Amino acid sequence: MLAFYLRGLIVAILAGVIAGLVTRLAGKAVDVLWVALAVLVVFLVVLARGLIRRIATTYTITNRRLTIRSGLLSRELHECRLERVQNVSSRQRLLERLLGVGTVDFDTAAGAAYDFSFRGVDDPGGIVRTVDAALQDLGLTHPRV
Questions:
Q1: In the predicted model, what is the mean pLDDT of residues 34-44?
Q2: Sheet order of strands, 76-81 included
Q3: pLDDT at 83 (0 to 100)
Q4: What is the reported pTM?
Q5: Would you kindly state where each structural domain of the chain is located, as residue ranges?
Q6: 92 and 101 in contact (C-beta within 8 Å)?
Q7: Which one of 22, 89, 101, 140 is at 20 to 30 Å from 119 when CA atoms are compared?
Q8: In Å, how far from its chain's centre is CA 145?
Q9: In angstroms, rounded to a whole number, what is the distance separating the alpha carbons of residues 43 and 35?
C-alpha cells in the first residue's frame, strides 16, 4: 500500500504540473489555486481508492486454511490449506518498520500460480508465529532441535 500511495503522490504532483502549464499557457502567470486544487483532488482520489482497497481485503488464518478475500463489488477469494504451506517468511522495509506493518509471504506446494502474501499487516512476526503454531498443531512441522 505504501508504494501505491507514493505512486499516487507522484501522479498528484504531475497533475499539479500539468495544471500549472495549462494556466500559464492560458494567462500570463501560473494560477496557484488551480495547481493546488489539481494536486488535492487527485491525491484525495488516491487516498479514497487506497482506503477502499484496504477495507475490501481480509486476511484470515484458521486451524485449516489461510484465506485472502478481496473486493467490494466483485469478490476474489484465494485459499490455501495449511498442509500446503512449506515456508513462511516476513519482511519489513525501513518505513514499514516505522509504521509497524509488513508483509508475510507463504511458499506453498501450489507453486507460483498465485502470490500468496499478506501485505501491510500489523505484527508480521506474530503472524508467522501463529501460522507456525497452527502447523505444529497439525503435526506438519519438524520438532526443533
A1: 94
A2: 57-61, 65-70, 76-81
A3: 87
A4: 0.69
A5: 2-54, 63-137
A6: yes
A7: 140
A8: 36
A9: 12
